[in-house]
């Protein structure tokens, strides 16, 4: 039985049982954390390897489009991609993982010093050339792929998965029946549809079912729509479009989807070095359904 299903004001806070992933609540051995920055332009789909991710973060980038940050530890697929460039928001987000490895295609020169100073193992192709290859399924630059095992050989001291604030267990009382939830960016959209047969939320991107080349339809046991500040940063792309900065330190509201219901919650992350606590309206720790988690950052 999973622990961590009671917390907040009404009971002791317990972390996930030993022998279970702190990212999914499912059986797993301690293993290093590899984050991969994922291209999500239409030309980059279908993706490869995302079905094995423990956590997928979705964020807004230039032009109102989206990219994802896929976090792997419990399972490592043979290949992940397409891989694209990192953003400033990723650095704060990744600090909660200790010192993880980050696979990405590169960063603009103005951001490079911040990446080098961050507590992570940066793994662009130049740092792990044998881990990357160009595929033939998509046009460049949407065809760069990484081999996770090879990437982690270039970061042998990457931190193992540890508590980042997620709690797993039986669903809390309350919640509103919800069959579908959509999150829209200016030029992108994600829809999560509950499938009782699959016991997960099926993912659609820009109105089309999200599939992978190696694992079929993408889905999640739990989806978190985390409302936060999304503001312009001091960086921009080659076309001059300003890069949004997504704030993941602070507090705010969130909508947690699990088991065909939606739960109004609060999130809190006082500092970048710690994880994010999710609590119900009663002040208890919000529990997630065991399995992969998607966290979609949305402007409040």
How would you characterize this protein structure?
This protein is mainly beta and 300 residues long. The protein has helices at residues 88-94, 109-117, 148-153; strands spanning 34-38, 55-60, 66-72, 101-103, 121-123, 132-134, 144-146, 176-177, 180-185, 188-195, 200-205, 208-209, 211-212, 216-217, 219-220, 222-228, 230-236, 242-246, 250-258, 261-269, 277-280, 293-299. The strands form 5 sheets. Strands 1, 2, 3, 4, 5, 8, 16, 19, 20, 21 and 22 form an 11-stranded mixed sheet that branches. Strands 9, 10, 11, 12 and 15 form a 5-stranded antiparallel sheet that branches. It has a two-stranded antiparallel ribbon with strand order 6-7. The protein is globular, with a radius of gyration of 18 Å.
What is the rounded Rg? 18 Å
User: What does the main sheet amount to?
Assistant: 11 strands, mixed
Number of strand elements: 22
Shape: globular
The amount of beta strand, in percent, is 35-45%
Following the backbone from N to C, one meets helices and strands in this order, namely: EEEHEHEEEHEEEEEEEEEEEEEEE
Q: Count every helix, treating DSSP H or I runs of 4 or more residues as helices.
A: 3
Helix content: under 10%
* Unreliable residue stretches: 1-13
User: Please, what is the oligomeric state?
Assistant: single chain
Instruction: Write down the overall mean pLDDT.
Output: 92
Query: What structural class results from the helix and strand content?
Result: mainly beta
Distance between the termini: 36 Å
